[in-house]
Amino acid sequence: MGKQIFKGRYTTENDSDIVVFIIGMRINRRLAIHKWLPVFLAMPSMVKELYTHQEELGFLSMESFFGLRTTVMIQYWNSTENLLTYARGEKHLKAWKAFNQKVGNNNAVGIYHETYQIKKGTYESVYGNMPLHGLSKALPHIPIGKEINNARKRLKVDKKGTK
Length: 163
Description:
Blueprint: E1 6-12, E2 18-27, H1 33-52, H2 54-57, E3 59-66, E4 70-77, H3 80-87, H4 90-102, E5 109-118, E6 127-130, H5 135-138, E7 141-143, H6 151-155
Antiparallel strand pairs: 1-6, 1-7, 2-4, 2-5, 3-4
Helix pairs in contact: 1-4
């Protein structure tokens, strides 16, 4: 059984500050499994922890994508402080320490992350005939009506681009 598809066009509220955190890894040497597999396997337990303690951590939601060499996780948080607090937490620090001990500056596997602080009213989203995805899993999911039927209206900007 698949995810529920919401027929029609939907958007999300944009009345809260949010943090978008993109994190991933890249396998640089495919045959060096002993180097990149521990990095790959460290993430599921952290994801489980995030969803188990979602509200208290300030974690909103996430999406994961897997390519031939690269994985990426897009996470949504309610504040930078909550994200940084989690980064200093026991489970993350243990995984980070293990990565540095096992991989360090070895070029078999790379990791990356990017953090974006987004102010309320400065983002918008559209989902057409989709299950809950991305921000719609993290924020209120609302049908698009006449009053918000284009990006300019959802962002509350005039034709000059000002609010």
